[in-house]
């Protein structure tokens, strides 16, 4: 942890948030799939899965009504002018749509579903997530520890100026495409094409892991790509 | 249009020749951006081609076309959402009025006032004043009642008048 | 005063434009004669309304027409290639069919599954109605999938499209649409990749080049430029050259365009 002094700051800030206002909102239909949509301009965002049914939003911006929390069609929408840290607790099985143009960071922890996370200028950190994951940060890095990929849907991690670092369980099954223009590609998985070698081009490599499975794309431009085995 | 829907794509060329000029003018008057307006005209015909199966022959083609045009424009404006606040825009815009020649002053001020009008007001004004559309068609395009169109057109003209007076005052 | 000012006001634009019925015209006149405030406002705004005619507007440049016919050619060329002289292809037969209405997501998933199966075991194309119906189902399901609300579902649609019949114009254009206007960057990037399959088609490549302009993500713009290099598209050099000078594009994109020009030469 030494190399990330700002992380301590973030934790300290989270402590302050606990004193900030909290809002609880329920989904209208517990039987149907849940979606949480977060659209913020600034601040930092942490989304955590928990074993509850409702969505809990904690942010100082709630107090001044700068952030709106609404629910319609089983979708909880959180949007507005958030400047400091915001913590959102969601049921473990929830799909996410996250758009944070200038957020410093978005952290997602212990959530399973269709996760669609897009930042312009902030880093994305995913911890113990599963499902179909689409993560994009234009200018910062993406790091992810994924417990399971949705076997029926593709996943994709893309960044123009950041590193992409993903860790999967050793029994990963996927059709992977890795590509970066100005970085390096590292993996300790065995990439195979049916009965042959993986396809290698100037800037990328593609092949199968564990006999193949859903499509998994990792694409960078200036950063390196790490595909790690847990 | 019915023939385009049924697969005769050459008929799309006829529709293009008939409407693209008016469509371009619509975009240009709404956005004041020539290059963007040309791109948007292309985008509208692309969408007409792509979504021709959704055209309902019971309705007027022009109304459908303008509906697509509005959507294309909205998509584009969302992408280019400006970072500056409207206030700054206003200030810089009105300061530029000064270099206008006196003979064409009225028209120049009017053009400026149009540019400063909020998007929705400018749109309804352009549709009613320049595009040769009936109020019924505008109602269909905007998805509102004819009565509401009339109210909106008047409010847009009034807002334009306020801006115009303001600009003329600043000038004097 | 028999009519309220507000009722009269909303008739004024039609009154100024002279597209009002005789009765209404009379009603407006009566009111204006009696109401000084409305009379002043009508005079002032009416003049403004008339003057709007004098605000000039430029004509569209010649490029608008060229681009339109390019696009139309791109769409038609595939159809013409595909159509045999004797019978219309399944494509052109499908062409005029109304889009089947799917009863909700369940039906959608069923079709998606059907499409998935038939992609993994390529169907043998026989000139039978059932086969035609099957192919039609695939194309429709791809189009539907590319319009789903969930980005994951749309990305799945792109994956299917990348395995679809190469000569299918509707798939090509559905992909183009995704490249241009899908709200998710990951989906757009995948759609650019999926285009590789259609790379032999000159007209389709030109449409892709067009799509750069409407693109706000520099990463997608770069992906398109790289694809054109991968496809060795010499005809793109001119447009790429122009991009190296285009200040609306980000520096990284300009540089990549410059790189592309040297690669293609």
Layout of strands and helices, then pairs:
The complex is a heterotrimer of chains A (230), B (172) and C (265).
Chain A: H1 5-19, E1 22-25, E2 35-40, E3 44-50, E4 55-59, E5 67-72, E6 75-80, E7 85-91, E8 95-100, E9 105-109, E10 112-119, E11 123-137, E12 142-149, E13 155-159, E14 164-168, E15 174-179, E16 185-187, E17 199-200, E18 204-209, E19 215-220, E20 225-229
Parallel strand pairs in A: 2-6, 2-8, 3-7, 3-9, 8-10, 9-11, 10-11, 11-12, 11-13, 12-14, 13-19, 14-20, 15-19, 16-20
Antiparallel strand pairs in A: 1-4, 4-7, 5-6, 15-18, 17-18
Chain B: H1 2-5, H2 10-31, H3 34-50, H4 61-79, H5 86-95, H6 105-116, H7 119-130, H8 135-142, H9 146-171
Chain C: H1 5-9, H2 12-17, H3 22-34, H4 36-51, H5 62-82, H6 90-95, H7 104-120, H8 129-145, H9 151-161, H10 169-181, H11 185-194, H12 202-211, H13 218-230, H14 237-245, H15 251-264
Helix pairs in contact in C: 3-4, 5-12, 7-8, 8-9, 9-11, 10-11, 10-12, 11-13, 13-15, 14-15
Give a written overview of the molecule.
The complex is a heterotrimer of chains A (230), B (172) and C (265). With 230 residues, chain A is mainly beta. Chain A is built from one helix and 20 strands. The radius of gyration of chain A is 18 Å and the shape is globular. The model of chain A has no long low-confidence stretch (mean pLDDT 88). With 172 residues, chain B is mainly α. Chain C is mainly α. Chain C has a domain at 5-54. Chain C has helices at 5-9, 12-17, 22-34, 36-51, 62-82, 90-95, 104-120, 129-145, 151-161, 169-181, 185-194, 202-211, 218-230, 237-245, 251-264. The relative contact order of chain C is 0.07. The model of chain C is unreliable at 80-133 (pLDDT under 50). At the B-C interface, helix 2, helix 3, helix 4, helix 6 and helix 7 of B face helix 2, helix 4, helix 5 and helix 10 of C.
């Amino acid at each position: 942890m030494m190399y990330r002094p700002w992380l301590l700051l973030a934790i300290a800030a989270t402590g302050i948030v606990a004193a900030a206002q909290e809002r609880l909102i329920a989904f209208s239909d517990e039987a149907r799939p849940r979606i949480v949509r977060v659209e913020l301009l600034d601040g930092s965002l942490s989304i955590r899965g928990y074993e509850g049914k409702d969505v809990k939003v904690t942010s100082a911006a709630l107090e001044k009504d700068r952030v709106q929390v609404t629910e319609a069609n089983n979708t909880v929408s959180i949007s507005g002018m958030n400047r400091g840290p915001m913590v959102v607790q969601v049921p473990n099985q929830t799909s996410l749509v996250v758009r944070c143009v200038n957020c410093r960071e978005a952290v997602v922890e212990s959530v399973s579903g269709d996760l669609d996370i897009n930042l312009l200028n902030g880093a994305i950190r995913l911890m113990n997530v599963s499902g179909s994951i689409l993560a994009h940060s234009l200018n910062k890095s993406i790091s992810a520890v994924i417990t399971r990929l949705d076997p029926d849907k593709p996943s994709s991690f893309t960044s123009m100026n950041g590193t992409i670092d993903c860790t999967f369980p050793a029994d990963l099954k996927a059709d992977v495409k890795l590509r970066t223009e100005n970085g390096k590609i590292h993996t300790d998985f065995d990439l195979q094409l049916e009965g042959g070698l993986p396809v290698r081009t100037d800037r990328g490599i593609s092949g199968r892991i564990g006999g193949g499975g859903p499509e998994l794309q990792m694409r960078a431009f200036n950063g390196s790509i790490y595909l790690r085995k847990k | 249009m019915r023939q385009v829907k049924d697969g005769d794509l050459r008929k799309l060329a006829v529709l293009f020749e008939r409407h693209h000029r008016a469509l371009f003018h619509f975009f240009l008057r709404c956005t004041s951006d020539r290059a963007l307006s040309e791109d948007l005209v292309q985008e509208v015909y692309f969408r007409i081609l792509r979504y021709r199966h959704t055209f309902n022959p019971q309705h007027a083609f022009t109304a459908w076309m303008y509906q697509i045009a509005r959507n294309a424009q909205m998509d584009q404006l969302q992408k280019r959402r400006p970072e500056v606040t409207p206030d700054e825009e206003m200030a810089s815009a009105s300061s530029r009025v000064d270099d206008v020649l006196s003979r064409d002053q009225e028209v120049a001020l009017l053009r400026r006032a149009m540019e400063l009008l909020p998007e929705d007001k400018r749109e309804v004004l352009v549709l009613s004043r320049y595009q040769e559309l009936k109020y019924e068609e505008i109602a269909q395009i905007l998805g509102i009642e004819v009565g509401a169109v009339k109210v909106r057109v008047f409010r847009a003209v009034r807002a334009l008048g306020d801006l115009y007076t303001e600009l003329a005052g600043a000038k004097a | 005063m028999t009519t309220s000012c507000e009722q009269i006001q909303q008739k004024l634009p039609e009154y100024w434009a002279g597209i009002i019925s005789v009765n209404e015209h009379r009603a407006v006149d009566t009111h204006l004669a009696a109401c000084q405030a409305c009379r002043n406002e009508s005079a002032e705004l009416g003049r403004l309304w008339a003057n709007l005619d004098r605000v000039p507007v430029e004509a569209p440049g010649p490029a608008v027409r060229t681009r339109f016919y390019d696009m139309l050619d791109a769409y038609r060329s595939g159809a013409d290639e595909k159509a045999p002289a004797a019978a219309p292809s399944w494509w052109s037969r499908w062409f005029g069919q109304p889009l089947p209405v799917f009863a909700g997501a369940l039906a959608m998933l069923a079709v998606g599954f059907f499409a998935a199966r038939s992609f993994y075991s390529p169907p043998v194309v026989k000139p039978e109605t059932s086969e035609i119906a099957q192919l039609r189902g695939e194309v429709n399901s791809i189009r539907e999938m590319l319009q789903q609300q969930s980005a994951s579902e749309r990305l799945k649609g792109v994956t299917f499209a990348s395995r679809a019949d190469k000569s299918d114009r509707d798939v090509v254009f559905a992909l183009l649409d995704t490249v241009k206007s899908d709200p998710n960057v990951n989906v757009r990037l995948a759609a650019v990749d999926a285009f590789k399959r259609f790379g032999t088609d000159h007209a389709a490549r030109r449409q892709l080049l067009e799509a750069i302009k409407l693109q706000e993500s520099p990463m997608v713009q770069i992906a398109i430029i790289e694809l054109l290099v991968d496809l060795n598209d010499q005809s793109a050099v001119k447009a790429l050259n122009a991009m190296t000078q285009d200040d609306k594009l980000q520096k990284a994109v300009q540089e990549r365009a410059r790189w592309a020009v040297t690669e293609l030469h």
